[in-house]
Amino acid sequence: MKNYVENYALGKLFRTLGYLFILLSSLYMIHHSIFVSETNFILKGTLASSLSPFEGILGTLLRYASLGPILDLNQGQEAFLYLMMFWSGFFLLVWTLGKNLFSKIMNSFFMIAALIFILYTKTTAFFSVNFENLGLIETILNIIGNQLDVVTSLHNLVPLLIVFLLVINLWSLIEGKRPKRISNILLSVGMFILFCAHLLTFAEAALVPSFTSVIDTIIELGQLHAYIFFPYFLLLGSTFGVLGFFRK
What we know:
The protein has about 250 residues and is mostly helical.
């Protein structure tokens, strides 16, 4: 009985840490889209004016949460650390929400492989902020670059496909978790929106030349707003997930 309780407590701690990482990185994406990025979207003006009293506090909180001032990071490097935080949060959920050891190991291998391609191609299809790899990471990627080029050279959509499969995998993991809790329901909605954003990214990359300008515009607007708003559901879901740590 004692060993079971200790294992459960440790798993609960890691699960909560995963939610916390997703919460902070989602908040970073939201803050970036409202106050840093020049990209316009529906409700941006309303959100900016409503949250402007908290902009300084929120920016400082996010800056220190990434250890930016301590590590003397620029904006791109700070975004890299939040990308790693975002990925780590889901990695921890894979191990704490997964149904069996085999699926956890397979999902972990796939997540690591997908992260390598995300960092190498600098795609923002998983984390919607441009980032700059840290020096050590860039050195490692340059060493294995030839091997990665073999895969990416197969087709220009291969990196998008790898991230697409990652999103589907994580969405199905969270969606299939039982019993249903509000935290995972909201996370599932957020990942579904990201899934839709990725579908539109495929459409834009592969099919847009054959579309009319009107359909092209609709696809781009849908893609933009899906990438903008999916972090809001992840923020809500992860907030409930962190609060769940105090549930008996």
